[in-house]
Amino acid sequence: YMTWNEVPAAPLDPILGVNQKFQADTSAEKVNVSIGAYRTDEGKPMVLSCVKKAEALLLEQSDLNKEYLPQRGDATYVQLCQKMLFGEKSKLLASGVVATAQTLSGTGALRLGAEFMKKFAKGKTVYISNPTWGTHNSIMTQAGVPFSHYRYWNAAGRDLDLAGMLEDIEAAPEGSVIMLHAAAHNPTGVDPTAEQWGEIMTVCKAKKHVCWFDSAYQGFATGDLDIDATAMRAFADEGLPLFVSQSFAKNFGLYGERVGTFSITCDTPEAVKAVMSQLDIIIRNLYSNPPKHGANIVKTVLSDPALYQEWRDELKAMSLRIQDMRTALYDELTSLGTPGSWTHITSQIGMFSFTGLSPEQCTQMVEKHHVYMLNNGRVSMAGVTSKNVKYIAKAIDDVVR
Ligand code: PLP
């Protein structure tokens, strides 16, 4: 009979592996800035108050049951998510040409999109920014979808390599799929400006590319849901074909509840029907149907004006705390006289700072100072607090000298 003795141990996931090492570290000084999850200024995970209130309301609803959802998920939830992405006044939504399914958070949305591509966009390659959230690449590998990269990061200026990005998108074969981070690029924290987005759109349009907006941080970049959706909505208004993956992990703090959506813009409502029927089949054979609890929370908050306002306020507060920590870290480094320029820490946006530390310096941060960060230089600013910021700055100061 078969045994599994020959199965090689898989390497640790680059991000989750750092977290495992952090857990095993017994140092009292250890700091975890590796995971993209919000922490309070006490370094604790946070459940939003609007979420707790929504859960209390859900408990009171006597008609709530635990029956299966349809493969495509909860119809009301999906409609509310579409509005949040495309806006109340969206022409696409008014003409019923957006196909959207509820998914297992953003990762599930990306995988569903990859499975759809495998069936219906055979031979097309997905172009992904370099660098990116590593799972973008591995999802495509696991799903068997060809992928390649476009230039994004200009290491010298610690900003966007717009010329390289445009050149690579231009060089991609017509009708390719271009993965774009909707807001708060992970890991660089560098987003194109409105003008740069315009240039990216022009090239994508000329090359008839499908643009795949990965929206994992709507509201986290600026603290405002609508501002963070501006680029994606501009592409939608311009009539470019879109895929959109949406996650409520960060902006609702619903990480483990697995709440998200995947959308495809179509030409006609008939095409939407057909596409939805195909998404149903893919979902049926992957996990049958999505979980209800997290979607019920989001549905409750988005459809209750008071809770919706409370959520927007909480979202703003989270993004402000992160911005404060950027300033605090910058100030500490400046007062230490740490060699180099650190203005990128405050100019970058969203959850992460791409510090520019070399892999060797990152290793020292972990091994010598117990500051757990990614080897590519990414620090989760959400893990920085008023208590650990001095310590982190001193560690950076030590490794760059
Ligand atoms: N996309 C990006 C760019 C991310 O950074 C993340 C999470 O870190 C995700 C998607 C998906 O996360 P989740 O599956 O938890 O929604």
UniProtKB/TrEMBL annotation:
Family, as annotated: Belongs to the class-I pyridoxal-phosphate-dependent aminotransferase family.
Keywords per UniProt: Aminotransferase, Pyridoxal phosphate, Transferase
Organism from which the protein derives: Emiliania huxleyi (strain CCMP1516)
Cofactor: pyridoxal 5'-phosphate
Remarks, miscellaneous: In eukaryotes there are cytoplasmic, mitochondrial and chloroplastic isozymes.
Domain called Aminotransferase class I/classII large: residue spans: 29-396
Reaction it catalyzes: L-aspartate + 2-oxoglutarate = oxaloacetate + L-glutamate
Keyword Transferase included in the entry's annotation: yes
Protein's UniProt name: Aspartate aminotransferase
